[in-house]
Amino acid sequence: MKRLLLLGGGYGNMRIMHKLLPNTLPKDYEIILVDEKPFHGLKTEYYALAAGTKSDKEVRMSFPEHERLSYVYGEVSNIDLDKQLVTVGENQVDYDILVIGLGSEDKFHNVPGAKEYSYTIQRMNNARRTLKMTAELPSGSTVGVVGAGLSGIEIASELRESRKDINIKLFDRGERILPDFPARLSKYVERWFIENNVEVIPHSNITKVDQNKLYNNEEAIKVDASIWTAGIQPVEVVRSLDIEKAKSGRIKVNQYHQIPTDEKVYIVGDCADLPFPPTAQTAELQAEQIVDVFKYTWADKELPGTMPSLKVQGMIGSLGSKEGFAYIKETTVTGRIARILKSGVLWMYKLNAK
């Protein structure tokens, strides 16, 4: 029996499993999924878990079940591409085809104290730790959120909804929030923060983090806790692979989402160097094309000379439970409709992933 080994139970590999099972996987193949957790975490909702507006149960789903699908739970400590072996804990798992989708972790940009003194939301365990902190903060406390990208905006707004009795400061490097999107969208988000008493600090440059202080352009600002959302990078085991990578640490891939030196190895999600933000949507689009490549290969057909471009539709974010913002097909949507859109996307994902 040949072995398709999937590393990481995130959005990309979930889509691959659902596309292949029950009828597309060749009869001489089995799938093994490796993950640290015995469930699929809804990473796009970790901000709500960290703020306490969603429960742990609401941000996870069961993995699919099939007679030719099995699981190995544990941390991947080594990937040997030459020997086609992956080390998980004390076990080694071999493969015929490998898909690396181990996701990302926080990038602290060598800022002193950032890793030691910041709370984060990139991984579920970190979001749980952040939840404990946000739930136990005394009234009147100040939380500094470093980074005003999508994650920073969502955790700051969700925290405002769950803790109306604390002060929130959102540190943004740019002149305006979400500078890559239309000014109308930025102004809407900024206005929401003003109306909901979240202080946005533009032109920020956090140079140091202490237990109860953030240093912004060398100015010491007192905070009771810091939440870091200022960048991500592939997990360390992926960054340590001796293959070509971009400056971001993400792995260079060809149009078939393979590493150029080994057609048996595919990269999906946050670990892949793509001309798009590393999002759940991008990972799922990649996964669909990877399955198409599998089908060509298994049918002994020549791969297309040019793969279609990934059709990333846009971005949707929430501002608490009632408002949101979206940029879809070059159209800006704000307010209640955008929030309904985000809830609908999540509902459809859960429905299709069952």
Automatic annotation (TrEMBL):
Signal sequence region: none
Record InterPro entries: FAD/NAD-bd_sf, FAD/NAD-binding_dom, NADH-Q_oxidoreductase
Record domain FAD/NAD(P)-binding: where: 3-287
Keyword Oxidoreductase: yes
Gene3D superfamilies, A to Z: 3.50.50.100
GO molecular function: NAD(P)H dehydrogenase (quinone) activity
GO biological process: aerobic electron transport chain
Pfam family name, one: Pyr_redox_2
Cofactor section: FAD
Keyword check for Oxidoreductase: yes
Keywords, ordered alphabetically: FAD, Flavoprotein, Oxidoreductase
Recorded family membership: Belongs to the NADH dehydrogenase family.
Name recorded for this polypeptide: NADH dehydrogenase
Organism: Abyssicoccus albus
